[in-house]
Prior knowledge:
The complex is a heterodimer of chains A (about 425) and B (about 130). With about 425 residues, chain A is of the alpha/beta class.
Amino acid sequence: MIEAVATIGAGQAAAVAVRTLRRAGFEGRIEMIGDEPDRPYQRPPLSKEYLASGDDEGLFLLPEHWCEENDVRLRLGQPAVRISPADAGVELADGTLVAADAVLVATGGRPRRLPAAAGERICYLRTIADSDRLRSHLRPGARLIVVGGGFIGAEVAATARGLGCQVTVVEALAVPLLPVLGPAVGAACARLHQAHGVDLRLAESVAEVSESTAGVVVTTSSGARIEGDVLVVGIGCEPNVEVAARSGLAVGNGVIVDEHCRTSVPNVLAAGDIASHWHPLFGERMRVEHFDNASKQAAAAARCLLGRGGPYADPHWFWSDQYDVSLQYAGHASGADELVVRGSLDDLDFCAFYLRDGLIRAAFGVDRGAEVMAAKELIAGQVRVPAGVLADEDADLAELAEAALLDESLEEELA
Amino acid sequence: MGEWVQVADLAELARRKRKLVMVGGEDIALFLIDGQVYALRDTCIHKQRSLSKGVVLRGRVICPGHQWAFDPATGQVDDQEQCQPTYDVLVENDKVYVGPARRLGGTGRATGGEGQYELSPSPAQP
C-alpha cells in the first residue's frame, strides 16, 4: 500500500498524475518537486496564444485552492538530485529529503542547443520565461530567423507573422517534417508557410551565427547571409535523464519504461516527454514529446500506482495550430508503405493516411480534426479500411470506427 | 429567442446525423445520437471551432479543433471543468424544435413546454 507519492517535475504529466490520483481516491501524501519557479502550467500556448499576447488565462494547471483542498504540496524552484530507495525518498539540491514510497519521474526535456549560439538575441522555447523573452523581441516589423521547420519552429513562425514580424525559416531538410510526413505532405506544409509570407530556406543548415548590438546574422551551408533582429532555435528536445541516471534507473533515449509506465526500479514510474515507453500497439519503443501523451500516459501511470492500470496503448495524437489552420496527427507512421490522401494537398484541405501492410498506422490532417479522430480509433482497433474508402470524402470514418468498436465489444461479450 | 423554433426534419437528421442551424443569431449544432436529438452551441467554448464539423464517438461529441469531448446532453467536457451551452430539444410529428432555454450543465432531457416528452427510441428511417 502506497502512502506517499512524489513527482519529480511539475509540468503537464506530473499535474495530470496528481489530479488522477486524487480523483481516484488516493488519500496519501502528495508532493510535487519542480525546478521551475512557476506553478504547474501547460506548454502548448507558449508558442501560440501566450507567445502572441502574454495572457496567462487558462495556462496554469492546478489552481492554488485545488492544491489546498486536495492537500498537494508544491516544492517549486527546487531541483531534485536523486531518488533514494534506501532513504525512501527524493533528495533535493538543498539537502532536503522528500519522503515518498512511490515516485513519478516526469522531468521532461530541454531544447537542443545550436552550437555556439547563446547571446541576447538567441532564443529557445520551453518555459514561460522563454516565451516571455521571445515575445519581447517580436515587435511589428522585427526580423525573426527561425532555425528548424518542425512543429515548434512552424508555430513560432506563424505566431510571429500574426504579430507583423518578417520571418525567415531555415530548415535542413528538403521539406519540413520530412521524416514524419514524407515528401508530398511535407511540401504541403511548406506551401502553408509560403502562402503566409514566410521566407522558407529549405535544405539549408546553419553554418555560422554571429551576433552584434545591431542584430544577428546567420550564414547558411550554401553561403547565404540572413540578417535578423532575433533568432529562435527549434531543432528538437533532449530528455532530462540526469536525475533518473543518478538514481540508477535504466536510461537510454529517455527513461526506459514498460507499457505500464514502470521503470527498472520498483515503485518508480515515468511519464510524458521523458518516458521511452514500450508501445504494445506499434510493437516498438518510443518517446513522444506531445501534450496529449503527457496527459494520458501520466493518468495511466497514476492508475498503475493504485494497482488499477491496464497497459498504456493510446495511439498518440497531437495538434499544431498555425495561422488559422488546425494541423493534427494521430498514430505512428514508421514503416508506412502506402500513402492515401483524402481531399486536396494543393488546397491545404486534406487528411493523409499512412498505411503499412494495408493497416492504418497514422493520419495527418489539415482542418480535418474529425477524420483524424476517427482514424485514431481505426488505428487503435487495427481496423482494415480499403484505400478507396479512406480517400472517399463521402465515406464516414467515424461510423466505420463505431461499427468496429461495436464488433469488438460483441466479441468480448462472446469470449 | 423566446419560443420553440422548428429547425429540422427528423428524417433529414436520421440521414446526416447532424445539422448546423441558426436560431436567434446563434449557431446551434444538432446531433442525432442513438435515437436522441441533442442541441449544443456550435462554437466550442475552448477555441471557437465548430462542433458540427466534429465527430461523434462513444456517445460523445468531439470538437475537431482540439478533440475536447462533450457529453451532448449536459455539455460537460471529459477531464475539464468547463461546460458547452446546450439547448432544450423537442421532437413532435417528425419535426425538431430547439427550445428557448440555453443552459449550462443542464439535465439535457428532452422536455416539452409543460412536461417531459419522450423521443421515439429509433427514428423513422427515410
